[in-house]
Amino acid sequence: MMFSLFLAAALQVATPAPAQAEGPPEGPVDTEQKSDSIDDSRAAPTPAPADETDAAASDPKVANQEMLIRKSLATWQGGAAKHDGKVGCVTKQTTGDKQIDAIRCGAIVTCFTPVAPKLDALEANEALTDEERQRQMAAVSETTAPCLKAYTDKAIGILAKTRAGE
Fold it and tell me: Where does this protein have compositionally biased stretches of type Basic and acidic residues (predicted)?
């Protein structure tokens, strides 16, 4: 099952202006990408919200890295899919940078796993018209936007600080 149709709106919210974040997301994030393949190994807990008092973004090197990462991340294309009952990430267009691709895939797996049962139920509901099913699935998928944004902001902040040498 592909959720990618419903992922687009939520992902647009997930890559705003540079974030101020510190510390890695909890849990491992596999950085290996496989184009057009499902990867369900990127699961990680939702990271804590970015610390608004963090001054790292005021460092020009960190801010520049955040800008470069966000620009690259905007070129990523893919979505969520289920394989063997687990939410995974499908990369259709890689950024060319495994660490940046892993940000998006980590966010997708982390944020879509909790809503997958709702999406599955809607997909299986034969009483719904195709139009109503798509509308309801899009609404459920849009609820992932805050999670996608928080995860993405936190991970970009971490990677930017690492690449800036901090």
Answer: 31-42
